[in-house]
Design a protein that fits this description.
This protein is of the alpha+beta class. The chain contains 6 helices and 9 strands. A hairpin with an 8-residue loop joins strand 8 and strand 9. It is elongated and about 65 Å long.
């Protein structure tokens, strides 16, 4: 199915683009959400109009979110987590954990769907991208360290480690039992 995008769609294209998509994706998602229309002859005549309107809308969004992007870019989020001797976490650090930590630091609500990263299952340093718009994607540094150990660069504060502690406390007792035997 060929569709004409009315709005920017992440990982598909920008407004005004003509894309070939699977029938189900077009019929069940793009068309009902009014993100696209069928690429008919009449719709193709309006491509330039759609592109110019989308460019204006994109510029407005980028200018509004530029300050927030600068505030989020380069932020460091620290998590204390229980881990085995090999550095593998009991549980994981998810996009929801990162979104909550960013929200506590910046006082701006970031949805977990806006964060591009895989769940973190090991100790170490990682980076994640926050997708504010298609053009603005600030980078966040994530540090995961073993619970009870100090961090090398000393950027950790008690407020930064609270979300991970709450997540780890919610973990079942069966998962935390091996950690107690490994530490003893």
């Amino acid at each position: 199915m060929k569709v004409l995008l009315l709005k920017d769609v992440y990982k598909l294209g920008r407004a005004g683009d003509i894309k070939k998509v699977a029938d189900g994706y077009g019929r069940n998602f793009l068309l009902p959400q009014k993100l696209a229309v069928l690429a008919t002859a009449g719709a193709l005549k309006q491509v330039e109009k759609i592109r110019s309107q989308a460019e204006i809308r994109r510029t407005e969004q980028n200018s509004e979110l530029k300050g927030l992007s600068d505030q989020i870019n380069g932020i460091t989020v620290v998590f204390a987590a229980k881990a085995g001797e090999t550095g593998k976490l009991y549980g994981s650090i998810t996009t929801q954990d990162v979104a909550t930590a960013i929200q506590e630091k910046t006082r701006f609500e970031v949805k977990k769907q806006q964060i591009d990263m895989q769940p973190i299952r090991n100790l170490g340093e990682f980076t994640a991208h926050v997708r504010l718009t298609m053009d603005l994607m600030p980078e966040v540094k994530i540090i995961v360290h073993r619970e009870g150990e100090a961090i090398d660069d000393g950027t950790s504060t008690e407020a930064e480690t609270e979300p991970a502690q709450q997540v780890q406390e919610a973990a079942p007792a069966a998962e935390s039992a091996p950690a107690e035997t490994a530490e003893a």
